[in-house]
Amino acid sequence: xxxxxxxxxxxxxxxxxxxxxxxxxxxxxxxxxxxxxxxxxxxxxxxxxxxxxxxxxxxxxxxxxxxxxxxxxxxxxxxxxxxxxxxxxxxxxxxxxxxxxxxxxxxxxxxxxxxxxxxxxxxxxxxxxxxxxxxxxxxxxxxxxxxxxxxxxxxxxxxxxxxxxxxxxxxxxxxxxxxxxxxxxxxxxxxxxxxxxxxxxxxxxxxxxxxxxxxxxxxxxxxxxxxxxxxxxxxxxxxxxxxxxxxxxxxxxxxxxxxxxxxxxxxxxxxxxxxxxxxx
Length: 280
Known about the structure:
With 280 residues, the protein is of the alpha+beta class. It has six helices and nine strands. The chain has a five-stranded antiparallel beta sheet, with helices on both faces.
């Protein structure tokens, strides 16, 4: 079962998450607008079995699911799509003007701007929007009691965007579930379920990863449903890792996600082999 062995104060954990979770530390930052709550360390056995928010691959050794495209709340891919379309439109318009009317010294500024978009804006924006996987998996192995998480980091600035896949391995017995919330404008508040590996009780050695985050639904009831999925998802993972009954979610319809780019993702061979093990 899940073991809680190390304690970190609420304020220290809040400080750690605010530093590590971009949505919680966005400027302007207001301490009162961020709240966190630790979720139960052990599963509650009751007739109402928990449900997952998405299609889930489950067998006797491991469970894998993919989190919804992160652009719904972070805006990275949305910005990449917008900049790509803007760059392509500007390049097409300038090229059409050049071939139709020839070189015109009065349009030299437009030519320079076109070259700037083509060389500096479009490559990075296209990498983020169209050539990066956005619907990334989490794999929980209950035989080895390990959790493997794939995440995407966007490094650089608006002129040079560098998508980077990162992989984390966590020990389930040291994992804590934390529900996070950052108040913002109507329909833009951030709610997330974050896994924190707490081995030593020292914030310097913590690592965290987002397991689930809400999107941007059109209705208040839609947001309430998504927020409720935080506890349901955490409970589902607890039940599975502790060999308790979980519903079969493999028949759940797959979510329609814009540009998931799943074809671009593949577990590294070593992690794939390790995460499928059926013995410790």
